[in-house]
Amino acid sequence: MEFVTLPGTDVELSRIALGTWAIGGWMWGGSDEQESIKTIHAALDKGVTTLDTAPVYGFGRSEEIVGKAVKQYPDKDKIRISTKVALDWTGEGKVFRNSTPERIQKEVEDSLRRLGVDVIDVYFIHWPDTKTPFEDTAATMCKLKEQGKIRAVAVSNYSPSQMDAFGAACSLQACQPPYNLFERAIDEDILPYCKDKGIVLVTYGALCRGLLSGKMRKDREFQGDDLRKADPKFQEPRYSQYLAAVDKLKTLARERCGKDILPFAVRWVLDRTGGVALWGGRRPDQMDPIPDILGWSIDTQTMAEVDRILDETITDPVGPEFMAPPERA
Hints:
- By secondary structure, this protein is α/β, with parallel strands linked by helices.
- It is 35% helix and 15% strand.
- Helix 1 (33-45) crosses helix 2.
- The radius of gyration is 19 Å and the shape is globular.
């Protein structure tokens, strides 16, 4: 496995991290607990040491499952857990942003209890809450670090200006934006900002909700509360454009790198960021490609060919903006 250490800390993260949004019934429509634990253990057996979760995934359920999986794993000392804070929800399950000090102080205790740990390795503000001063949010996070409840302070989905405001009160060790072959807005601002500031990128969505898994078909139907029902990429005419791009990328990955599209897509993220790529899954067998991502890199000519394929194939690109939760009322 490849690793990166967060600046100013002793927190070492595996560069492939298991994201558990699909565990606990949030993103793809439910997941069996034992199957989820087996999936987490399969990732750990492949060398992954970093598990990324959040209270909002299943409204606490994902954290509970992660906690059980860690407790049952024989080599638990190597595991690093990142979780998030500052999304609130109503009794009806409506989610909204809330990074008030009171919310953070309550949530960290809830997360520690659900995870069954004394300290959280990396603690992310899940989404920026513009109704709470960033300095107040940052000061609260710094206090948690001073109290030994968290080891590293991080933010997710923040812009550079928001990170500047946050950083005025508390230094940041990591940032978690969306990033994949199809969603590349951070190339313009967040990626160079984090590299300049020494903030480690822990990006999510490496497979773009499964589009880059190589398994998507045009006749695929999404059921229940599957997030992809609301994703513009999975609606025509865009869906056909993205599938056509995947077909061309499959050929490129095989001819240039001798790889399938899935490891190629994750390696692309690792090579571009120098950081961590979050990997999601619901079944143990979905962890099988992990070793094929490691120990190689994509050359500059192939990177340029990727850009050409996307420019040629996708005439109406769209980002992940649909995923953003609302601000507080």
